[in-house]
Amino acid sequence: MIRVLMVGSAPTERGGMATVTNLLLRHGSGVAQIRMITTHKEGPAATRLRLWLTGTLQVVKSLRYADVLHAHVSERGSVIRKGVLVWIAKAFRKPVVLHCHGAEFVDWYRGLPGLAKRLIALTFRQADLVAVLGSSWRTTYMDLLGVKRVVNLGNPIELPRTVSAAPGFKIVFLGRFGERKGSADVLSAVAGLSAPVELVMAGDGEVAETKALAARLGVNARIRTWISPEERDVLLSSAHVFVLPSRDEGLPMAMLEAMGHGLVPVVTPVGSIGEVVKDRENGLLVKAGDVGGLTRALQSLLDDPGLRARLAKAARSTVEPYEISRYMQILGRHWERLVTS
């Protein structure tokens, strides 16, 4: 069986990259022997530096026993940390997969000075395979960095076996509170609906500011800090609409998970979202920052249960190919090709 050395942020961290890492670790045993080495965890700068150094040393010691290095990377410091590991792995003549999750990578990269861009592009070209979250990302990485071996993997999810039709009308927002995810737009849009609805918002970031805005707008929302996967599944199983009016995204795990539970996604066509959600086919698309459009989209679902049911069923069908067992089979074939070639 192929031996995969996986590196990245701690699986206990919050966010989509940690969720994907956890899924690969839990479900990957059927296709590979996976060992995880943590090279980053949120905390004081000295703690982060020490973890990076000790993690890098562990990678050096472990590479001789590995068949492939699989590195999860986002932007900024993550690129530097994984870039060092790419060069180390190539010195050991080991194939490398760079698994890209960073929604802000392109903007960050374009703002760098020329020499930094050339070094990063050269590092990405050393990878034997670059995995991205959508077809548009694939084109962008190939054009921007000159990378030739790029594949669209999307994101994996654990698909619930059944979807229950809960009574009522509940809207859910999951993500970091703040401008990038459009949490304030959610509250403003819900405030404009013709009738009160149940709204649950969970995440981290600007929690206090979000609660204050809800109070000013008179929106009766349950605003919670980050919830566990078990709490998330309970919440999604009782909801009807998932809303995420982001300004910038990759392919949100929360959206895919919500669609798997049969929620209608009301989202913005940024990042790779537009490749998954088609307007009025399996969800509703609104322009980023268009609060009026967001209100109208939510109102249409509130007014038309038939539309809501049709889109919910289509949303569930859309994400079935992202189910983790299928995902692992595809990823396993990529690992096998790298090793055997």
TrEMBL record:
Tell me if Transferase is a UniProt keyword of this record.
yes
Domain Glycosyl transferase family, chain residue ranges per copy: 169-317
Superkingdom, natural source: Bacteria
Q: Which Pfam families match?
A: Glycos_transf_1
UniProt KW Glycosyltransferase keyword: yes
Could you tell me the keywords of this UniProt record?
A: Glycosyltransferase, Transferase
In its UniProt entry, what is this protein called?
Glycosyltransferase involved in cell wall bisynthesis
Q: What species does this protein belong to?
A: Kibdelosporangium aridum
